[in-house]
Amino acid sequence: MECKEIETILLDALSLEEVKVTQEGTHYKIIAVGECFDGMGRVKQQQTIYGPLMAHITSGELHAITINAFTPTQWKREKIFNM
User: Fold this and answer.
1) Could you read off the pLDDT of 15-29 as tens digits, one per residue?
2) Contact (CB, 8 A) for 33 and 70
3) Are strands 18-24 and 65-70 parallel, antiparallel or unpaired?
4) What does the alpha-carbon distance between residue 3 and residue 28 come to, in Å, rounded to a whole number?
């Protein structure tokens, strides 16, 4: 599955300001930024991302996914300290 295809699915399904998907072999890393994650715990954030991708996950098209979800404020801080 192409990274841009995953980005499009997530942008169409969720209120996100930014999505970055990278791929290394069969492993995908998703960084999602949106106000929709405000007040959510990490598990709920991941469930929110998994939801629109579930058909691709259950078909085996997608597996080995790492998800990092941030609010816009958290993302600004993350970029300053870790990038």
Assistant:
1) 999 999 999 999 999
2) yes
3) unpaired
4) 8
Is the Cβ–Cβ distance between 73 and 49 less than 8 Å?
no
Distance in angstroms (rounded) separating the CA atoms of residues 41 and 43: 6
> Whose structure tokens read 């469930």?
47
Residue 61, both tokens:
């098209």
Residue with tokens 């098209």: 61
Give the pLDDT score at 32. 97
Environment class of 2 (CB within 10 Å of its CB; exposed 0-12, middle 13-18, buried 19+): exposed
CB 29 within 8 A of CB 22: yes
